From TrEMBL:
Keywords: Oxidoreductase. Residues 229-253 are annotated as: Disordered. It comes from Paralvinella palmiformis. Belongs to the NAD(P)H dehydrogenase (quinone) family. This is Flavodoxin-like fold domain-containing protein. It comes from the Eukaryota. Gene3D superfamilies: 3.40.50.360. The keyword Oxidoreductase applies. PANTHER family: NAD P H OXIDOREDUCTASE-RELATED (PTHR10204), RIBOSYLDIHYDRONICOTINAMIDE DEHYDROGENASE [QUINONE] (PTHR10204:SF33). GO terms for molecular function: NAD(P)H dehydrogenase (quinone) activity. One of its GO terms (cellular component) is cytosol.
Length: 253
């Protein structure tokens, strides 16, 4: 495989944490395969997550934002490594999306969004840990279905800006019951073949007219499942639509 450029955005205050070990595994594995790897350690950098009026269009981009945008511009794949906090991005990572993924850089309203956005052609994957076990995030779990939780993170943070979104790497329940070495090995093996993966399924821009799904697209959906979590069309939510690509076949049966 030809050498690729991978940029990792790391959002954890402690490099000695399990998230830090996940970061180290990613760097070691990808560089051993001949890829170029760069890292933005947001906490160590002291990245300012608070958006201000100077971050909006019409003002000169701030130096820290420009620096991050240049890193993303070079990347074939972007990995976001973080702990899930209150069912979302840590504040510093949410601020990264707010300040770095800006109009004119990653998207252009009204038409250059999603598969026509300015970062199209690049891949992205969320790699994160949770404080609770896997069954907490099932369709009957107390935290809610992980596919529903992931929709705003992946559709809003990634796909809106043009990324092809790969299935997330989720490590559940970092406690005594977790075999941490096994989780690291799974991540290592996946990274070795990550450029062979198919992205998750999202509706194409051409499926919409006046910002709503076309009637014929809705009629094409067979069975009891919708194709995506966000555009559920009154059907049951597609199983695994934000965590794997199985639903590509399942939702159209």
């Amino acid at each position: 495989m030809a050498s690729k450029h991978i940029h990792i955005v790391f959002a954890h205050p402690n490099h000695g944490s399990f998230n830090g070990r996940m970061l180290d595994v990613a760097i070691e594995t990808l560089t051993s395969l001949g890829h170029v790897v760069t890292v933005s350690d947001l906490c160590e950098m002291g990245f300012n997550p608070v958006i201000g009026k100077e971050d909006f269009r019409g003002h000169d981009p701030q130096e820290d934002v420009t620096r991050e945008q240049k890193k993303l511009a070079l990347a074939d794949l972007v990995i976001f490594q973080f702990p899930l906090y209150t069912l979302g991005y840590p504040a510093i990572l949410k601020g990264y999306f707010d300040r770095v993924m800006t109009e004119g850089y990653s998207f252009e309203l009204p038409s250059k969004i999603y598969d026509d956005a300015l970062l199209k052609g690049k891949r992205a994957v969320l790699s994160f840990t949770t404080g609770s076990k896997r069954d907490y995030y099932g369709e009957k779990g107390i935290m809610g279905d992980i596919n529903v939780i992931l929709w705003p993170l992946q559709n809003g943070g990634l796909r809106f800006n043009g990324f092809d979104v790969l299935a997330p790497n989720v490590v559940y329940g970092l406690d005594a019951h977790l075999d941490s070495q096994k989780a690291l090995d799974v991540w290592r093996r996946r990274l070795e073949r990550i450029f062979d993966e198919q992205p998750l399924l999202f509706h194409r821009n051409t499926d919409f007219v006046d910002n709503k799904l076309k009637d014929e697209v809705v009629e094409e959906m067979k069975g009891s499942y919708s194709r995506t979590v966000g555009q559920h069309c009154g059907k049951s939510l597609p199983p695994g639509s934000q965590t794997d690509v199985v639903c590509r076949e399942e939702t159209d049966k």
